[in-house]
Amino acid sequence: MSIAEILATGPFPQTSSTGGVGWRSLVAQSVSYPGAQRSCAQTSLSQAQVTGMYAAPVQLVPAPGAGLLIVPVAATINYVGGSAAFGVGSGGAIQIQWGNTNHAGGTNAMSATLAAASLTGGVTNNISVLSGSPAGGTVTSAGAINQGLYLTNATGAFTNAGAGATLSIMVDYLIISCA
Known about the structure:
Blueprint: H1 3-8, H2 23-28, E1 37-45, H3 47-52, E2 58-61, E3 68-80, E4 94-98, E5 107-108, H4 117-120, E6 126-131, E7 149-153, E8 166-177
């Protein structure tokens, strides 16, 4: 079964909500959420985008429009090593966030960030899966409504990898009305 087929069969198990909006509960019940549009977006990043995403976050899903919210269900990050891994430089944790605030300054849209070592740990291939649901289960409306999803990282830029390294991100998400 391909990754796309696995993601399409969701929803993925979530931990219980800690109050607020009940975000994790919403994601766990996403198949039957009234009026939700479910989609999947895949983005392949160039080496320049990976090394530049600290200063210029890479758009994964465009803003949905006024009064609409992207609710990520899961994200699959597929790193295929080249002749060398991305260099640490001062690159830090990788984050999928609402909005294009640089330096991982936006609201994290996933359950966690991804360690920089997933890109710097070697030349071998690796796949990481993050579940949707911001840490704490609650997000402010202004930080998420009508905001696209972007990939960025904290601390500083990664340095170039050897030839052939690729990074692709697949995001499974819902669009819901918040009006």
